[in-house]
């Protein structure tokens, strides 16, 4: 080939590249340019609900966390308060949300010590007591936290050792060192800026609450090339306060939009919150559009309708709490408001019911028709499926049966901190579990909470009692769930109704002898939980006997009847198999 031809081909190639660049920059709409570089926000992760004190029926600030993992560590632990010598240091470990070890090797919270980052930070003179599962959930001062993974742009991810802090470690540090939501946000943000954030985690959201307010705190890495020597923040973060009379939700999607950094009562952020977006081409101030956090760092174009229910949780929550607003499932999720005022103030039971919602009565109800089988089981198809090479979305409900546990936290400013804070904990699938109260000030939780994993059945583990019930409920769901709801009314509803009396007794004791009040609350919480766990093991046994062989065994009358199938199911079976009706017998 002649040299002239080579130069001609080379020139044409350059021209084509330039043309592609021009189309990419000027014709592709802003926000779409980096679409292929996005780390898709997870659709299978956790749902978080937040309720301001003036939006709740009893004036408590509430948050929820559905830990929807299916393979994560489910154990719960209490960490006591501690005093530390002057000049002592606190080691920082990498803690994965997902990784577990076989029970015979060691418990997760011991094995994590093998993942030392090599970084120590100055220890504070005194660390507070708190309860934790995968994350820190509540400390003795009623600081409460809930988590939801929201993702970020792929270019921002930092899985290198320079990302010293992950989201789990940040929540534990916040529990140890903070009394208020604002203090926790600033503590986590400052540490992540100085030492770097990421490693196991990408974009994360935390609901951070105290007795007075609740905030959405979102934090993201700043790429694998960051080092402390750069002098730049090792993370980018932003926080927005939920108005006291409103509620909000995070279903694995960034929720913070336009920000006003001059309004310190409602917004907090890292120093690079806008500059990092400008430097990386995620936001162009010359276009004259206001900066939007979620559009810059974690945009998504999906809606409940366009995703065929995979991303319907955002719409569903707002439709449940504010039906008068007539939110459309066609509305892009990124266009939904940050928060809304609910049509009525929400009670603790209302919030628990929302954590169990499976889109009942909507076109996305996963129990309707063939999807739910003969016994209207909403848990058959929790994830998208592939058939003959084609993908089909299925509704992703707020309640999914892969939850490790679900929490509802209450922070109540009219009571002393050890009494005012409550974590309501339900192990396993929400629809077949039972919420148990753990007051903020208790000094112990049942030993069975800290035992067990998914791969080894263990009757000493609290979680397995609830999985035992769930497994036997799935067989004949529409019938067995009635037995479960009856048990929930007996144990869960009774615990809710008992709270005012427990509060009064504990407060009276607290005024006389704080230690005695703490012992009283600890004994109550541990005893109640142990009774519930025993009741659930017994319930599982009863379900096994009652619905054995897909029959109904009446243990009181020692009779057996056939489990009734709906006629609609038989019609579909007849249609699918082209069955012929039986010919009438000849007379």
UniProtKB/TrEMBL annotation:
Alphabetical UniProt keywords: Membrane, Transmembrane, Transmembrane helix
Keyword Cell wall biogenesis/degradation part of the UniProt annotation: no
Sequence intervals crossing the membrane: 7-28
GO molecular function per UniProt: cysteine-type exopeptidase activity; dipeptidase activity
RNA-binding recorded as keyword: no
InterPro entries, per database record: Peptidase_C69 (IPR005322)
Example of a GO biological process term: proteolysis
A Pfam family that the UniProt record links to this protein: Peptidase_C69
Protein's UniProt name: Dipeptidase
């Amino acid at each position: 080939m002649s040299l002239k031809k080579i130069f001609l081909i080379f020139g044409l190639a350059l021209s084509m590249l330039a043309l592609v660049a021009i189309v990419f920059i000027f014709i592709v709409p802003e926000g779409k340019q980096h679409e292929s570089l996005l780390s898709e926000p997870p659709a299978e992760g956790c749902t978080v609900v937040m309720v301001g004190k003036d939006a709740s029926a009893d004036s408590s600030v509430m948050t929820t966390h559905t830990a929807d993992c299916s393979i994560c560590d489910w154990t719960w632990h209490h960490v006591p308060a501690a005093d530390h010598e002057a000049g002592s240091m606190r080691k920082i470990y990498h803690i994965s949300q997902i990784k577990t070890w076989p029970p015979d090797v060691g418990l997760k919270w011991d094995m994590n010590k093998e993942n030392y980052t090599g970084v120590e930070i100055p220890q504070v003179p005194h660390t507070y007591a708190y309860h934790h599962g995968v994350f820190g959930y509540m400390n003795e001062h009623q600081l409460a936290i809930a988590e939801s993974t929201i993702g970020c742009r792929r270019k921002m991810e930092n899985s290198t050792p320079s990302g010293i802090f992950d989201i789990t470690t940040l929540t534990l540090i916040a529990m140890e060192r903070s009394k208020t939501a604002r203090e926790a946000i600033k503590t986590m943000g400052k540490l992540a800026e100085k030492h770097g954030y990421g490693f196991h985690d990408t974009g994360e959201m935390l609901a951070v609450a105290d007795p007075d307010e609740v905030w959405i705190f979102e934090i993201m890495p700043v790429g694998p090339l960051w080092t402390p020597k750069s002098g730049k923040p090792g993370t980018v973060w932003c926080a927005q306060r939920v108005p006291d009379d409103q509620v909000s939700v995070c279903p694995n999607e960034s929720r913070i939009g336009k920000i006003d950094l001059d309004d310190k009562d409602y917004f907090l952020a890292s120093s690079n919150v806008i500059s990092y977006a400008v430097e990386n081409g995620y936001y162009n101030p010359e276009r004259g559009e206001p900066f939007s956090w979620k559009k810059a760092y974690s945009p998504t174009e999906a809606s409940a309708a366009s995703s065929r229910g995979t991303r319907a949780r955002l719409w569903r929550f707002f439709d449940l709490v504010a039906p008068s607003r007539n939110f459309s499932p066609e509305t892009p999720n990124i266009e939904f408001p940050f928060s809304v005022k609910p049509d009525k103030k929400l009670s603790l039971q209302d919030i628990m019911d929302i954590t169990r919602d499976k889109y009942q009565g909507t076109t996305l109800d996963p129990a309707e028709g063939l999807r739910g089988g003969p016994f209207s089981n909403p848990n058959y198809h929790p994830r998208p499926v592939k058939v003959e090479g084609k993908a089909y979305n299925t509704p992703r409900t707020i309640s999914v049966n892969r939850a490790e546990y679900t929490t509802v936290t209450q922070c109540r400013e009219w009571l002393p901190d050890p009494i005012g804070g409550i974590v309501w904990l339900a192990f396993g699938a929400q629809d077949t579990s039972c919420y148990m109260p753990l007051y903020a000030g208790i000094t112990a939780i049942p030993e069975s909470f800290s035992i067990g994993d998914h791969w080894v059945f263990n009757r000493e583990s609290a979680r397995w009692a609830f999985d035992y019930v769930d497994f036997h409920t799935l067989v004949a769901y529409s019938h067995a769930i009635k037995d479960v709801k009856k048990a929930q009314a007996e144990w869960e509803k009774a615990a809710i109704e008992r709270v005012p009396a427990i509060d009064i007794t504990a407060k009276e004791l607290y005024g006389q002898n704080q230690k005695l009040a703490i012992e009283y609350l600890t004994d109550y919480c541990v005893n109640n939980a142990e009774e519930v766990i025993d009741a659930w093991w017994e319930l599982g046994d009863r379900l096994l006997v009652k619905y054995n062989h897909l029959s109904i065994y009446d243990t009181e009358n020692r009779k057996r009847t056939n489990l009734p199938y709906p006629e609609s199911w038989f019609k579909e079976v007849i249609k699918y198999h082209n069955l012929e009706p039986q010919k009438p017998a000849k007379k």
